[in-house]
Amino acid sequence: MKNSTQTALTAGLLRTLSSLPYGLVARLGEILGSMLYLIPGKRRHILHTNLRLCFPEQSESERRRLARASFQHVIRSYLERGLQWYGSAHAITSLVELDSAIDLRDRYDQPTIFLGFHFVGIEAACMYYSIRHPVASIYTPMSDEVTDAISKGQRARFGTTMIPRHGSARNILDVLKSGKPIMLAADMDFGLRDSVFVPFFGVQACTLTAVSRLAQLSGARVVPFVSKVLPGYRGYKLRIYPALQAFPSGDVRVDALAMNQFLEARIRETPDQYYWVHRRFKRRPQGEAAIY
């Protein structure tokens, strides 16, 4: 009963947000983000720690400005879930500007892995693509059962096949070989299993090798995509890049480093739009002290 009530309340709030003008919701998110940033807490500590590790060349005041802007974007992105999860197909697609290096009308005779990253616009990008083209998505179940149930259902509402991250590798390979592309993100610390430590902004980061292994087993090309927030509350820009060259290389460590280097370059373009509130350096190489 408690979960059903929470689900109804959360869904009601998100539906309400989806009915409001996008610009209003975005502004409300920024205001709320500015207010919440002033309150010391776990996420703010993680944010500051990540920025100190990844941008040691910046002054303390520069990192504080970046942290505040990043926190605004994060909270804003949470409010924008209303539109992304409950808005109409037209409402979503009208806010996304597409810049693709590949022809998305192709039948994808070669299996395709769309490699995403946790920028604040990633949800809009995935929803936009799912409206236009058949796709499967590998997702990580959320710790909050209510939000997890809502997100899974709403992300699948335009026909996306949802595959849990710890699901069957055979299932994932079957989907790829059927011709349906798969979307996944591999820029978080998901544990030591099927991971290697490689540098990310000069800091050893536990990085998944699953993308490399799936590409090797399926013969898939790996196509990175990034969705960023446009200025002036105009929506998002989804940029789909050419497939990574010489990937997989046959060496999972080389491939993991290549993914991190690609991501670093994209982050430096708009550092305030990355989800720095995640514990990217949660696990450490043997002998290294905990960071957070």
Through-space gap between termini: 36 Å
**In total, how many domains does the architecture comprise?**
1
Give the topology string: H per helix, E per strand.
Answer: HHHHHHEEHEHEHEEEHEEH
Classify the secondary structure makeup into a structural class.
alpha/beta
Helix content: 40-55%
Write the layout of secondary structure elements.
Layout: H1 2-19, H2 22-37, H3 42-54, H4 60-79, H5 81-86, H6 89-93, E1 96-100, E2 112-116, H7 122-132, E3 136-139, H8 145-155, E4 161-164, H9 169-177, E5 182-185, E6 195-200, E7 203-208, H10 210-218, E8 221-229, E9 236-240, H11 252-269
Parallel strand pairs: 1-9, 2-5, 2-8, 3-4, 3-5
Antiparallel strand pairs: 6-7, 8-9
Word description of this protein:
The chain is of the alpha/beta class and 292 residues long. It has one domain (2-273). It is built from eleven helices and nine strands. It has helices spanning 2-19, 22-37, 42-54, 60-79, 81-86, 89-93, 122-132, 145-155, 169-177, 210-218, 252-269; strands at residues 96-100, 112-116, 136-139, 161-164, 182-185, 195-200, 203-208, 221-229, 236-240. A seven-stranded mixed beta sheet has the order 1-9-8-2-5-3-4, sandwiched between helices. The protein has a two-stranded antiparallel sheet with strand order 6-7. A hairpin with a 2-residue loop joins strand 6 and strand 7. The chain is globular. The two termini are 36 Å apart.
